[in-house]
Amino acid sequence: MKLSLKKKDADIDGVKTAKPKPSPDSTVSSNGSSKFSFTSPFKKSSKSSVEEGPPPIAALEIRVGRISSVANHERDDKLYCMDVDVGEDEPRKIASGLRSVMSAQELEGRAVLVLCNLKPRKIAKFESHGTILCASNDVSVKLVAVPVDARVGERVTVPGFVFGSDEPLSEKKVEKEKVFEKVAPYFKTNQFGVPEFCHRPLMTSAGVCTCAIGNASPSSDFVEPRKEQ
């Protein structure tokens, strides 16, 4: 899945990346449940038979959050200013570009996924501390949904990848090492709408995350649906 962020006064919301070539799909078992397969998408070095390491997904701090308030930005009619609880002492202030596709009533109280370890950015003079993950296709943008029993503040994991105690990376290192750009091409939602990294689901303690759009490209909350020509 291609995870692309579109610039909006700040360069974190930015770089489109190409999809990886390998694309094995999830299958459905005889009892109707989704079954996740995995094929390594990483190229082998020309000088060695050892595969290159996977993108550093564990370096990213993706947590379950809950939107506690939504207000229109005073200076930009395309932006919301949100308070999002991610289990810290105070809610995070997050600027969101979802104003053109979702009402404030649709967003307030929703459980969401928040990419937390991004450097704070001034967006239309509003300091934003993170971004909300969505999925988009040619016609719509939808939030990534979180299981109802998932705990606010818990960290999202991916089966088969180690999330050590010394992770995630600092905000400064995430930016300097372009971690998000490296990880982005390996995200997508499968045919059932399950967000995956390298064909493995994004997990909470209460189960997998989901989305109303299948076979889509996850994005930040600044991405608008692409208009058909």
From TrEMBL:
Where is each TRNA-binding domain found?
A: 56-157
MF terms in GO: tRNA binding
- PROSITE patterns xrefs: TRBD
Superkingdom field: Eukaryota
UniProt region (Disordered), positions on chain: 1-54
Which keywords belong to this entry?
RNA-binding, tRNA-binding
Q: Where are stretches of biased composition, namely Basic and acidic residues?
A: 1-16
Pfam families linked? tRNA_bind
Q: Where is the composition biased (Low complexity)?
A: 26-43
Q: Does the entry feature the keyword Cytoplasm, yes or no?
A: no
Protein name, please? tRNA-binding domain-containing protein
